[in-house]
């Protein structure tokens, strides 16, 4: 009996060549899977390409709703920005795609799954840790790490086997979903140079953005966004609309030096208009409703959450432990935040909540005297103990 493999298929050159390569090299029957996480590509065309490349069967799974509810919402609640900058757009989608690979592999009785990641990035780690945690018996194949083909050799191989070639006309590696777009490679590999304008698709440059600011009010309920300017929207539409609205004002561009799990530093460029707006607004609302003690502690939890998810450990129980704490804090994170979007910048200009701790306190100001005496006790005393200097 022929063994089956389920391949995470994007429709690009690598994964198309992989369909044939897996059947030639490993004698597998290849089933392809494309998970829709909001990458805005023609999924019908991708399906046809998979079949033309030699897949015996193709699955398209729309996982946008799950992506938002199970991955993006927790990221908003955790104000998730890896190294203070990156909203984890690609990172969040990987455990979900891995979950779907395992689902299809079980349904099809496949003995292996495969993905198109290189041996240099984080995505391979995210896929494989998740797959191994869910299905330890499934074999995992990462052809790019094994086959040692140059791009030219891949193209030759594709031509030889009649694999449909729609070669990209740019040097970039792009990954896109609802939460943002990652752009790597080509001229971006030089961290000293400004990204060429051609790399951006979701955002205009601030110079080209409108000369008048736009105000946007975001409503949150228990840490989750539910409305834009008072219009209750389903979460997918909400994020899509906010991506367009903020992108139009040049909001959402990120350019930073990132520490990959695999030791190396890399120059990363992203466009995440909705993510940056939602996290900025959510963080601000938390400051209105959480105590200073909750806020101080939550910073550490948030940073740990982002680090864990970036590092491919979505399946670690610590992530759920942190979620339990975070969810408890979100019970009061409801209210409105008003943002001003203008030429690439997001400014919070107003916030309100039924749970605001902010209020005008009337108290006898003379009581401050005793507080200060005690507050400074040790600091003061330390200046007058017998010091050697
Ligand atoms: N550096 C980012 C991350 O590790 C982006 C990865 C993007 N993936 C890609 N295939 N272009 O999450």
How would you sum up this structure, described in words?
By secondary structure, the chain is α/β, with parallel strands linked by helices. It has helices at 13-25, 43-52, 64-77, 89-108, 123-134, 143-147, 151-160, 235-247, 273-289, 292-310, 317-329, 368-375, 377-384; strands spanning 4-8, 29-36, 57-62, 112-114, 139-141, 173-177, 180-184, 214-221, 224-228, 231-232, 253-259, 265-271, 335-342, 345-352. The chain has 13 helices and 14 strands. The strands form three sheets. The chain has a five-stranded parallel β-sheet with strand order 3-2-1-4-5, sandwiched between helices. A five-stranded antiparallel β-sheet has the order 10-9-8-13-14. α4 (89-108) packs parallel to α5 and α8 (235-247) crosses α9. The radius of gyration is 25 Å and the shape is elongated. The site of arginine (ARG) has 11 residues, from α4, β6 and β7.
> Total helix count?
13
How many strands?
A: 14
- How would you write the strand order of the largest sheet? 3-2-1-4-5
Q: End-to-end span in angstroms? A: 83 Å
The assigned structural class equals alpha/beta
Strand residue content? 15-25%
Query: What does the main sheet amount to?
Result: 5 strands, parallel
What gross morphology would you assign?
Answer: elongated
Encode the helix/strand succession as letters.
EHEHEHHEHEHHEEEEEHEEHHHEEHH
Which small-molecule ligands are present, each listed once?
A: arginine
What do the pLDDT scores average to? Answer: 97
Low-pLDDT runs of 5+ residues are none
Gyration radius from CA atoms, angstroms: 25 Å
Helicity, as a percent range: 40-55%
């Amino acid at each position: 009996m022929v063994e089956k493999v389920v391949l995470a298929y994007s429709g690009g050159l690598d994964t198309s060549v992989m369909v044939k390569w897996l059947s030639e090299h490993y004698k597998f029957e290849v089933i392809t899977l494309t998970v829709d996480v909001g990458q805005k590509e023609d999924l019908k065309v991708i399906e046809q390409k998979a079949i033309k490349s030699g897949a015996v069967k193709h699955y398209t799974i729309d996982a946008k709703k799950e992506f938002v509810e199970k991955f993006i919402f927790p990221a908003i609640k955790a104000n998730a920005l890896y190294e203070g900058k990156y909203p984890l757009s690609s990172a969040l989608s990987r455990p979900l795609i891995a979950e779907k690979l395992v689902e299809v592999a079980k349904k099809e009785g496949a003995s292996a799954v495969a993905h198109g990641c290189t041996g240099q990035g984080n995505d391979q780690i995210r896929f494989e840790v998740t797959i191994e945690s869910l299905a330890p018996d499934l074999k995992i194949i990462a052809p790019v790490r094994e086959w040692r083909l140059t791009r030219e050799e891949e193209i030759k191989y594709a031509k030889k086997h009649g694999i449909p070639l729609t070669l990209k006309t740019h040097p970039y590696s792009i990954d896109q979903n609802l939460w943002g777009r990652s752009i790597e490679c080509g001229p971006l590999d030089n961290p000293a140079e400004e990204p060429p304008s051609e790399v951006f698709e979701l955002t205009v440059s601030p110079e080209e953005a409108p000369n008048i600011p736009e105000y946007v009010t975001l409503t949150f309920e228990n840490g989750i966004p539910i409305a834009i300017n008072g219009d209750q929207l389903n979460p997918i539409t909400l994020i899509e609309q906010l991506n367009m609205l903020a992108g139009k004002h040049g909001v959402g561009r990120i350019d930073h030096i990132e520490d990959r799990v695999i030791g190396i530093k890399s120059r990363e460029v992203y466009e995440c208009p909705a993510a940056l707006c939602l996290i900025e607004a959510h963080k601000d609302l938390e400051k209105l409703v959480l105590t200073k003690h909750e806020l101080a502690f939550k910073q550490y939890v948030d940073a740990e959450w982002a680090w864990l998810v970036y590092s491919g450990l979505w399946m670690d129980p610590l992530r759920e432990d942190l979620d339990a704490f975070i969810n408890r804090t979100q019970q009061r994170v409801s209210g409105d935040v008003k943002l001003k979007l203008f030429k690439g910048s997001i400014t919070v200009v107003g916030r309100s909540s039924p749970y605001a701790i902010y209020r005008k306190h009337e108290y006898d100001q003379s009581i401050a005297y005793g507080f200060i005496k005690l507050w400074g006790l040790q600091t003061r005393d330390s200046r007058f103990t017998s010091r050697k200097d």
